[in-house]
Amino acid sequence: MRRAWWVVPTLLVTACWAWWGVTTDYYLTLNDFWGLLVIAEQLNPSDPRSLHNGFFPIGYPLLLRLFGGASVLAFAFLFSVASAAAVLIGVGVFLSPRTGPVLAITGVVLTALHPLVFQHAVTSSADMPMTAALVLGVLLLSDALEQDARRQALVAGMLIGCAVLLRYHAAAVVAAMALGGLMAWPSRWKALCGACVAACAVGGLQVGLNLWAGVGPLQTSQAFNLYKLFNPVDWFHLPPPDLPGSVWAVVQMNPRAFWQAYLAQLSGVWLLLGLAAAAVALAPAGARRTAAFLLVILVGYLPLQALGGSPRGPLPAVPLVIVALVSAAGRVTQVPRGTWLAGAAGLVTVVMAAWSWMPANLGFLRGQEANREASASVEAMLRADGVRFAGEVYTDAGEFYFVSTKRARAGALHPLTPGGWARVDLYGFDRSFPQMRLTSIDEFLADCRHYGVTHLALTPGAEAMVRGLGVAVTPATLPDGLRWVGQTGGLAVVAIEGS
């Protein structure tokens, strides 16, 4: 029982994350969620094309469809919280028998406080669930290879396959774990093969769905992610007219610009890889194989995810690097009075981490609360002017939605919008969010009337969406056909006459 003291900080921080969700009505920070919810709504085995999306595999939308129901916002938020808690549990269970309770607590607290983990624990998206599946799978596989536990290795492979079904870039770990496992434990190749087969079998379900949908077995939309890495993107008018159809064609557009942008993305990767390499060098003999295994996985995963240009990409690497470093610090406990030294070092490390990371985490929470209050004020103004549901509103503000609405469908929660990445490759998105003509204000307003839009909620940058619409953000310059309602939450609210 003494070794399980890491459970205490795990329970405390999980309770805090869940409490924050309840107090903010499970506020949605990441507007990617609306596209994921549309994918979930469109899933239909009788329409195989709905089972493929180039940006997100089927795993997370399927969970939203099966378990979200009318409380989909609460489910999505609490699923992220539960996934973050699972990561902390995995870190604690893995470290406790290897380093002792003091360093296990240190590893759990450091993982919880790191901004990527802390902030995504309270963000409804597929990223934290994918991280949980990937981290638990990798740690379980490392333990299985240490003990030559073949059934455990199969379970680990299945978890990693589940991570692939949640985010495509998790597939990079499958090849990396095969190489790292053979390098660290060459005699355990049978257990490793079982894990790889299990990972491919579970993750390969998406390949089967792609074939059923009539697209290529490995077809994704990663060409767009690569395109935006070194090209300016007009998020109001997508897809870009010059977007090639393959990743290689995107690179050939401007190889020099691509490599410059890619190397810039790798700047954050070097630190994580350097820390993981230091863990290998410093680890005691009993932990060196595990540290080397984790390093190879990170070398396979981090450079590949950097191609997407997403700041969320390194999220799964953070717990693995912390585990490697804390495991290396375990050699402190092998010297006289090592437990006291480990406790002092752990306390100092946690205090320094909190001092460095908590301002960013608290700022993130304050930003969530401010955005929720802004959305609530805009919604109140719209409802006071006769708006009944979100589909009667068009906005260029991706973070604005009807926070008081509890119905599950995306169209009931989020106003109509230009769409962002969903316009590039999201089958059926136009059914939930019709595409307006954005070539002129007259055509735009005509389409709004056609689709029953009665109000606009506009940012100061609305001119970039529709030429001539910028004049609608101040009452003195309204064009014909528009009526000024007010301004609140950073948005101008305008009514469309004749709707």
Written account of the structure:
The protein is mostly helical and 499 residues long. Helix content is 61%, strand content 4%. It has 21 helices and 4 strands. The protein folds into 3 domains: 2-220 and 266-366, no CATH class; 221-253, no CATH class; 385-496, no CATH class. The longest helix has 47 residues, at 338-384. Strands 1-2-4-3 form a 4-stranded mixed beta sheet. The model has no long low-confidence stretch (mean pLDDT 90).
The strand count comes to 4
How many H/I helical runs?
21
Return the string of H and E elements: HHHHHHHHHHHHHHHHHHEHHHEEE
Q: Specify the helix fraction band.
A: 55-70%
Could you tell me the radius of gyration in angstroms?
24 Å
| Oligomeric state of the chains present here | single chain
In short:
The protein is mainly alpha-helical and 499 residues long.
Output the keywords.
single chain; 499 residues; mainly alpha; 3 domains; 4-stranded mixed beta sheet; 21 helices
